[in-house]
Amino acid sequence: MTKEKAVFLDRDGVVNELVYFHERGIIDSPFVPDQFRLCPGVPQAIRKLQNGGCKVIIVSNQPGIAKGHITPANFKKISEKMKALLKKDGISLDGEYYCLHHPEAVVKQYRLDCECRKPKPGLILKAAAECNIDVSASWFIGDNLTDIKAAQNAGCHNILLGKMRCEMCDLMYNQGIKPEVIKTNLLTAADFIIKGA
Ligand SMILES: [Zn+2]
User: Does pLDDT of 196 surpass 90?
Assistant: First the structure.
């Protein structure tokens, strides 16, 4: 069977907006379904990729349960909300893969130095094997250095979402991480993959 091409997406900051927690002054993933909002243009971007022959698969580190920030029930509800919001536009994802581990997890069950937490390539490779994907023909779109590093480690193309910030340049240079392409949002990234590839 011929392998297919995929676009792997990080979740927080790519598919949905990050949440600013005023009381603690930090930006993090949504902890409850009410905090989950899609980024602008996401359903259109996913439709464009799927119509262009790509499977669209979420590959995301989600240590919130491990850290005690999110209950397993809310984690599930957040995923259901994401799928319901996409479904309003007639979109279904081709897969969702999450690493729930963290080496310093407060919840013992998830305390693990695993092979699936990005920047390790394990979760991308698992998704690729299970969904019959040709990794070398596929793309990873993320908003973090760990995403770009995971893509490089897995051997797929990558797009960094966001603006290149100087402090990020130094960090990337020191770690040998080089984004192939930088785009401001998922829709412009999808355009680049479909028209440019
Ligand atoms: Zn893991």
Answer: no
- Ligand 1 centre and the CA of 128: distance in Å? 16
- How many angstroms is it from 168 CA to the middle of ligand 1? 25
Which CATH number fits the domain that encloses residue 94? 3.40.50.1000
Task: Report the separation in Å between the CA atom of 115 and the middle of ligand 1, taken as the mean of its atom positions.
Answer: 6
List Cα–Cα distances, 168 to 35, 146, 158, 164, in angstroms.
Answer: 27, 12, 16, 7
58-115 per-position pLDDT tens digit: 999 999 999 999 999 999 999 999 999 999 999 999 999 999 999 999 999 999 999 9
Residue 124's domain comprises: 5-196
- 116 in Cβ contact with 99 (< 8 Å): yes
Specify the number of domains making up the chain: 1
The Å distance, Cα 121 to ligand 1 centre, comes to 10
pTM reported for the whole predicted model:
0.91
pLDDT at 115: 96
Q: Phi then psi for 57, rounded to 5 degrees?
A: -130, 130
Task: Calculate how far, in angstroms, residue 111's C-alpha sits from the geometric centre of ligand 1.
Answer: 9
pLDDT at 197: 53
Cα of 2 to ligand 1 centre, how many Å? 29
Counting Cα atoms < 13 Å in the Cβ hemisphere of 123 gives: 28
Closest by CA to 45, choosing from 79, 80, 14, is: 14
